[in-house]
TrEMBL record:
Membrane topology note: Peripheral membrane protein
Organism of provenance: Pseudonocardia endophytica
Protein name (Swiss-Prot/TrEMBL): ABC-2 type transport system ATP-binding protein
Record's subcellular location: Cell membrane
Source organism, top-level taxon: Bacteria
Family note: Belongs to the ABC transporter superfamily.
Primary location group: membrane
GO MF: ATP binding; ATP hydrolysis activity
Domain ABC transporter intervals: 2-228
Record field: transmembrane: none
Record keywords, A-Z: Antibiotic resistance, ATP-binding, Nucleotide-binding, Transport
One record GO biological process: response to antibiotic
GO CC terms of this entry: plasma membrane
Length: 229
């Protein structure tokens, strides 16, 4: 589903990606684990066609990122919501942009708000919701059009345990339905919960790949992982 080869990206003198390669199959969850500044968000921005690399290639189900918009569901690290719009209005807007028509949008909205425990928030302005409810709204936007590739950048950052579990359960469900998932986090236990394949990112490239159990047994010494998740 996602095939990334040898990406290179510089920001002026800063090398953000230096030979970043990754393959993610349909139904697979790949966790990206790495320090701040390792290059995870830059990689996701290139896949999402937000920025262009200097070199390397990305294909999403055989398409270039510029032609793959409707295949993608994206939850950015920093919340990108409109405080004066309701949850329903967000889903209508973003589901519509992704091409959902009225009946499909209605049933997709119901499915996604049920899965993310947002039913009671549906007609509330997002600015009045708790941080956890806003996180779940961001995930709902990513999921509403049933994307084939999900890009989730620290989707549980700052989330309460209930929100975190709801998000993890939904991600598992999406992968079970055949979506490919890229999930960045600083919490290895989340990746264990997801039964994810883990790619450790350092200095702009993937330096090792394995299951979370394998990584727990033999993490490279330079990789530090938080266990407070
Ligand atoms: P975090 O876990 O903090 O989100 P990350 O792994 O997502 O980090 P990136 O945000 O991709 O890392 O950053 C990779 C490198 O590129 C860092 O050194 C960062 O400072 C630099 N960088 C990222 N975006 C820009 C930008 N717009 N301008 C200049 N430098 C940038």
């Amino acid at each position: 589903m996602l095939d990334v080869k040898d990406l290179r990206k510089n920001y002026g003198p800063v090398t953000a990606l230096d030979g970043f390669s990754l393959h993610v199959s349909a139904g697979e969850i790949v966790g990206l684990l790495g320090h701040n500044g390792a290059g995870k968000t830059t990689f996701l921005d290139i896949v999402a066609n937000q920025i262009r690399p200097e070199a390397g290639s990305v294909t999403i189900d055989g398409r270039k990122p510029a032609k793959a918009g409707e295949l993608l569901g994206i939850a950015p690290q920093h919340l990108a919501l409109y405080p004066a719009m309701t949850v329903r209005e967000h889903l209508r807007l973003f589901g519509g942009v992704a091409g959902l028509r009225r009946a499909a949008l209605r049933s997709a909205t119901e499915d996604v708000v049920t899965a993310l425990q947002l039913t009671e928030c549906l007609d509330r302005h997002v600015g009045t919701l708790s941080g956890g409810q806003q996180r779940r709204t961001q995930a709902a936007i990513a999921l509403v059009h049933r994307p084939r590739l999900l890009l989730l950048d620290e989707p549980t950052a700052g989330a309460d345990p209930e929100t975190r579990q709801a998000l993890l359960d939904v991600v598992k469900q999406q992968a079970g339905d055949g979506a490919a998932v890229v999930y960045t986090t600083h919490y290895l236990p989340e990746l264990a919960d997801l039964h994810a394949s883990v790619a450790v990112v350092r200095n702009g490239r993937v330096i090792s790949r394995g299951t979370s159990d394998e990584l727990l047994a033999g993490l490279p010494s330079e990789v530090t992982v938080s266990f407070d998740g």
